[in-house]
Amino acid sequence: MERGAGWSSGCYIAWIAAAWLLLGTWRPTGAELTCRSCFSPSASSPASFRVKLLQQPTPLEVPRGASLGPSSGEEGQTLQEKKQPCRGWSAGGRGEEAGGGEAGEAAAELREARGWGQPAAGGVGGVGSSAPEEGAPGVRRGAGRARRSAKPGRSGQLLGRARGRGGSLALSSEEAQLLPRDARRAVAAAGKAPRAKRSSADQRPFGPDPLGAADGPKAAQAAGRGSREEGRLGRLRGGGEELKLTGTTFALAGDAAHNQAMVHWSGYNSSVILILTKLYDFNLGSVTESSLWRSTDYGTTYEKLNDKVGLKTVLSYLYVSPTNKRKIMLLSDPDIESSILISNDEGATYQKYRLSFYIQSLLFHPIQEDWILAYSIDQKLYSSMDFGRRWQIMHERITPNRFYWSVSGLDKEPDLVHMEARTTDGYAHYITCRIQECSETTRSGPFLRSIDTSSLVVQDEYIFIQVTSGGRANYYVSYKREPFTQIKLPKYSLPKDMHIISTDENQVFAAVQEWNQNDTYNLYISDTRGIYFTLALENVKRSQGVEGNIIIDLYEVAGIKGIFLANKKVENQIKTFITYNKGRDWRLLEAPDSDLRGDPIHCALPFCSLHLHLQISENPYTSVSISSKETVPGLIIATGNVGPELSSTEIGMFISSDGGNSWRQIFEEEYNVWFLDWGGVLVAMKHTSMPIRHLWVSFDEGRTWNKYGFTSAPLFVDGSLVEQGIETQIMTIFGHFSLRSEWQLVKVDYKSLFNRRCTKDDFQTWHLHNQGEPCVMGERKIYKKRKAGAWCALNRDYSRTVVSEPCICAEWDFECDYGYERHNNNQCIPAFWFNPSSQVKDCSLGQSYLNSTGYRRIVSNNCTDGLREKYAAKPEQCPGKAPRGLHILTSNGKLVTEQGYNTTFIILMEEGDLQRTNIQLDFGDGTAVSYANFSPIEDGIRHIYKSTGIFQVTAYAENNLGSDLASFFLHVVCPVERVHLSVPFVAIRNKEVNLTAVVWPSQSGTLTYFWWFGNNTKPFITLDSSISYTFTTEGMNTVTVQVSAGSILIQDTKDIAVHEYFQSQLLSFSPNLDYHNPDIPEWREDISRVIKRALVQVTGIPEEQVLVAVFPGLPTAAELFILPHQNMSERRKGSEGDLEQAVEILFNALNQNLVQFELKPGVEVIVYVTQLTLAPLVDSGAGHSSSAMLMLLSVVFVGLAVFLIYKFKRKIPWINIYAQVQHDKEQEMIGSVSQSENAPKITLSEFTDPEELMDKELDTRVIGSISTISNSESTKEIPNCTSV
Asked: Under a CB-based contact definition with an 8 Å cutoff, are residues 896 and 974 in contact?
């Protein structure tokens, strides 16, 4: 739909009629930011971004689609310009300014959108993007961080094409009054309800006229009373014509399809800008096209450099050395080739080098411009000392994002690298080494034990690690590279998660999620050494970043130390609090006295206050909800709302000029605001995804604004880049005139706004205070700033602080010391769990120590005298104490260790003289050590156990005042490698059988056995490797045994055929089978199936009645089991005859050599009968009959026959009798006894000792004899656990 900028002067009736028809037939729509070739982001969030580099300045990379505006429709009053009798209606996502038809010209393009990207990290100036000069994202363990001002050099984001949202109708209250009542209802229904009617004075339209008229209120009146948002922007200078800024527009021709761009401004005071545009295919997950552009005139014109880098080269990333901005590095897309391009002249020329690995991220040295660390996709770390021309590997298993360069002044070698590396056993360790001497022999471990994965953080003077022991996380810190010390949190905080937020000013801010918290964190603050932490604020709101990282709602105000803002959850409401003394005292923010219209705001504390959004975008081109700047102390700009709690819908822009004491509203919608000229000038641009062509400039800290046009046609704004440096007078705006057009780069030069340099008459002073108290953090400070309305440029030697003097120490300059809690009377009292005397255990008799009074002066507080002496720690003589609270544990907190490996024991003592207490440690294996004091054992005592078992480890501490004892039982095991379940192939129902688990190695220490039978959900648990079990169900029964040794769990499963009765037959084979017998379980199983299939084919006996088991060893032998028909238990007598008949058929076939099979072409194997053994037919019934007597006589006769054969077996060769004992004696193995005199008869009870079982199995391998054992495996060698 097209709309003109203005209509002729007599068209009120036509204008109203058109509005009425339009409202009746049209409703606003909210087109989401989408991409033809990628995913669709959520309606409530801009494009997804990811950090590409670690703590490293990079070029700005912005996805097309990551517009300055939100991606879902908002409601609220629009900016209003002074109305003419008849003028065009403004249309925009949240109400665009009229004039020129900015929204209407692109409305037809809203059906399509391009490009969302996934960027890296960084920040460039203002509420729209943080200034690169100040602050830094919070240091974090894992991914958590707090909102803070950005430190220098944090750039490198992805710019993406913005997308329109369908026009919405924006009316001023005056325009709404011209409509009929029903029309006004329609406006309200469309989400743009008109303001309530005000007095005649308030009804006057404010602000600049789009056609040039300037009859709004005077600037002084607007500043004093406030006005509607458009009127609040002040008057246009010059009256008749629209004010314009000096600017140029350049189109990146041929890149219309590219949906990502990386932008880099080459250093301070440099005119070079580099832009890398890319076509990223989200389906393929790679870059398919790229273009490199370079400007040498601050972005006025650009040159395409594709021919200089190679026309077929596809580039994926652009980097710059943080210490030499002239050095540029480009990475090619790894899917096409792995190479880098290096420039030493700000990107004018390039040299190409091939790589043997794929780079995932880079880390530049903070001082040496040519030193780089590269992290590869396969988690290897490489180093280069010539800016990427040559690389060498440092380590092959590095945790992502856990490698750090040395810190100047703390580490001895400048080329030292801190790394979190993983060993082959999967444990993570903290190691250091130099880049040119990083081998297994030169790597050192500052912390001897293993650490939790992704827990190493090296930041400033501190190094943090985490070690989980006994299910609890323990945190350690090294201050100035001293030995690690365990961090002391309040005893019952019991942290589930911990994030290091800040290490500035020799103090650590940490966010801790305690055991009873889910969606909030507690804020803790440490002493100088980072060891003792005290609570600063409870229940701080946390949010989740686009990559799942935890973000803490805490913001440190730049330029003034000690001021923090935090969002706290209070009775399910989120409220914003501020502190002026680093968290000792917090209070709610006072709401502005009046709104933009000048109406008073009735907001009484504590029920109503001002609440601010504290998010800082990971992309500098998207909205940053709060910003401050080092060069303009006290000035804070943020989005928020007035009310009982923080709201995500009722958003306005607020500013404070006095460090957060008082606030003023500057916009009723969300704007992006940048700092110019050392922060003394503010530039605002509407946060919208609709096309715009205006921005606003303020020289008086947002009290009045002047509107400027920066482009001739409305522009879909994707982002903006502010000139690096603290003067900051040039801005580059990126966008598109339509969603199908090329990238448009608009250079805006603000230098024309400054007509002169500031003199001393252009400044005024202001006093920093906290609700009238002039002393903040122990100092009284007076600053100077530019006077409102002084259109002058600040000098480079501009000094913002005039007076700084210390104050007398007062109550608010001290916080409670570790172990103390502040009570209602404002006194610090020891917590119930804290014993103040326990802090003197490091103090030896005859020495002195500083005894805490329960207070400590806030770190960085500069107060003097006053209460300083009263609250200072007092020196006292060390008292002699007997040892008490002795504890002993392993370094990993486990009660099990492996034989042959180092075990580290830690001895702790709650009270006692560490320097005068003797320590003795008995390892329980006949070895003990003694120490004169605790000094040699601070890092633990190591010991290697040479045998498995359970050992009682005892620690004994003694001095001349007493003693203490502590002990625990340690299980020493050898890791089990394999388990074999030894069971019979066939068992008789309701008869007990023995099952045995054979474990390798045999000497594995204390093992736990879990026995699972059938479908039972509960196992039998034993410490013995054998178990007796009675099967009550006929058919195939499954048995599983699991063996647990320490953290290792292995298992084996076997099937047992259970029947009322059965018969068996020993089988032998032609000798050629032995030649092909590898004697492994898999081969025996396959051959058993082949033999069974051959038997079934020859005899015709049903397959379910035949079971064949091949024995281990040579010569090859097997046992044939003939089973009754299924479900034949009720007709046992008849089935017994059937079984005898089946046996006879099989016997005849085998005797006639009819059973044979082909092992391989040309190898025929014949199956022979070795010996027939009959299992007794067991009657499970309880009744008696005449056949019972016959059976009894038969048993007696068979027993006599067995005795005679046994007695005279040397005289009766080749006969063995197989029998199943029917009484309650132990069960024998189901099988045949060898004709060899030396072959033993094996019973299940003999398998209780695994080592004996293995010996017996090995004994069955007798050449020239046939042996039958249970369903088991044999091995030629039994491995044992050896010492390391």
From this structure: no
Cα 956 from chain centre:
42
User: For residue 814, which of 773, 873, 768 has the smallest C-alpha distance?
Assistant: 873
pLDDT tens profile 411-448: 989 999 999 998 877 789 999 999 888 887 777 888 88
Per residue in 589-637, pLDDT tens?
999 999 988 899 999 999 999 999 998 766 666 657 899 988 888 999 9
* Location of structure tokens 């369903």: 1271
Classify residue 510 as left (phi > 0), alpha (psi -120 to 50) or beta.
beta
Taking only Cα atoms into account, the Rg of the chain, rounded to an integer number of angstroms, comes to 42
Burial (Cβ within 10 Å: 0-12, 13-18, ≥19) of residue 414: middle
Report the distance separating Cα 318 and Cα 48, nearest Å: 19
806 within 8 A of 783, measured Cβ to Cβ: no
Contacts of residue 1018, defined as CB under 8 A and 6 or more positions apart, other chains included, come to none
Q: Note if the bond before 1115 is cis, omega within 30 degrees.
A: yes
Rounded to whole angstroms, the Cα distance separating 62 from 260 reads 6
- Taking alpha carbons only, the member of 1134, 1131, 1139 closest to residue 1176 is 1139
Chain-centre distance for alpha carbon 209: 52
Alpha helices by DSSP H, listed for 310-449, are none
How far is 140 from 551, CA to CA, in rounded Å?
Answer: 10
686 within 8 A of 710, measured Cβ to Cβ: no
Look at residue 1251 and tell me whether its pLDDT is greater than 70: no
Q: How far is CA 1179 from the centre of its chain?
A: 67
Q: How far apart are CA 932 and CA 827, in angstroms?
A: 41
| Cross-strand partners of 1119 | 1066, 1109
Which segments within 407-471 are labelled E, that is strand? 416-422, 428-434, 457-459, 462-469
DSSP string for residues in 380-394: -EEEESSTTSS-EEE
**Whole-angstrom distance, CA of residue 463 vs CA of residue 477:** 6
Whole-number Å distance between alpha carbons of 379 and 421: 10
Is the full-model pTM beyond 0.85? no
